[in-house]
Amino acid sequence: MTLVHVQSRPASAHPVHGTVADVMDAAGPQVWEDMTVEVALSVMAAARTGHLVVCDEDGLCTGLVTRARLTAVRDGSGYTDRIRLRDIADVIGPFASLLTTRAEAERAMRCRRLGALPVVDEHGSAVGVLAPTS
């Protein structure tokens, strides 16, 4: 699991910036990494969301996949209906912890060109998703 780097700070340091816990959305639909691309797209459509949190067999967050990524895979020349979410290499990480500052998370999202960033607790379970602010 790859967490966004977090530095310890006193509670009074940079109170204006806050943490991702202050601004994250609910994690939304969570799916298992053995789900096929087609089923994941169907779940996304039914949930009216642009992303899904992907979990392993223990329920721990392994990443997040977007509609754009799934569509690109489905439309690719090597696509078969047997491709599972775990087969998509860039589904894995990164993640933010509840203590990651908003600035750190938004910087990581910009640098990695991420549309959303899963937020995990100390055990690796998804607790939310951070979407970029305008």
TrEMBL record:
Which superkingdom?
Bacteria
Q: Which UniProt keywords apply?
A: CBS domain
Q: Which PROSITE patterns match?
A: CBS
Give the CBS domain ranges.
Answer: 24-82
Looking at the keywords, is Kinase present?
no
Record flagged with keyword Secreted:
no
Q: Report the protein name in the record.
A: CBS domain-containing protein
